[in-house]
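Model: Ready when you are.
Researcher: Fold this.
Model:
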Amino acid sequence: MTQERLRLVRERLRSFPDFPVPGVLFHDISPLLKDPAAFRALLDLLEDHLRASFPQIDFIAGECLDSRGFLIGPSLAQRLGIGFVLVRKKGKLPGPTESVSYDLEYGKAELEIQSDAVEPGQKVVIVDDLLATGGTMCAAYELMKRLKAEVLECLVVIELKFLKGSEKLKSIPFYSLLQYD
């Protein structure tokens, strides 16, 4: 059943060469999101992994720079019966925030989280659709650490192994459902 689900998820991904800049192969999950059976299979796989790995999770934290990763986190949190915490581009969240700057594949960016998003010691899994160079994931991890959360794992659907982003995460627990070289 797991292999069947993985096959369904993989079949619903597509690639676009030279997007958003020449030399980049963009892995698009839009067809996966359009297909209810494939999206359900994705969530089943991620839910099974988290339930088998962690007896308690307080929150899923989602990197909300674009809508793709944002769509996975809340759905997964709902299935687990836990809350979802927003990690956004600077200036998108009201109230007091913590922020951190980081390097992207093609520039710089800044992420922030509301200062009261999690309490010290709460157990968090950071979820995104893709890990490339690791800058965004490291920034989200840094924000969680500033709030004194316990990051159980950084979880992505797709890992671009050739960019070595998981090496940046060093001792941070990391899991990717699909890997591309």
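Researcher: Now this one.
Model:
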Amino acid sequence: ESVPSVQVWCPKELKRSPRDITELDVVLAEFEKIAANYRQSIESNVCRKAIDGFCSAFKDQITTLIVEVQELKNMKKKNAKAITDIKKKRQRLLQLREELIGAEPKLIKLKKEYAEGQERKSALRQATELFTSLRELQQDCLDYAEKNSSQKVVYGSSSLPALLVESRRILRAERHFQNINKKLEKALTVQKEKISKKR
């Protein structure tokens, strides 16, 4: 335990608190007391000067040791803090690595789903173009029938009017495919946002 009456020796360039007191501080304080008392008991100026020189040299040695001990203590504190920080950062890196490894299969799956969605989108685009052509063809046929209303229309399995009647059913299916495509695009957008957030 530290002695309350002992003053902690501290130069301006070195910060020390009462918790940093060591045996060297105790030795220095006691030595200065003994030296001061002994100096007062000596009448010879020559002896006093000799005592002052010895005390000064001794104090220099003790204070040098105090500074070295304190600097070593401060260095140990900094090293301990640096080691703790390194451990925390290493643990965080390992955690991120595990998260990245875990996200890789999901990314592969999403890429596959995206490719499939693109294929479906392309097929739907082609179907839409076909439906548009059929609609134009139907309108042309209706225009022709209106201009030639006197002619009797014969429906056969391969006749153009029969195909146009069938196209009406196909055109109704077009809207169904468009709804499916919108849902697929929405699902892909949600999956992309989830991946970007995890990164």
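Researcher: Key takeaway?
Model: The chain has a mean pLDDT of 81.
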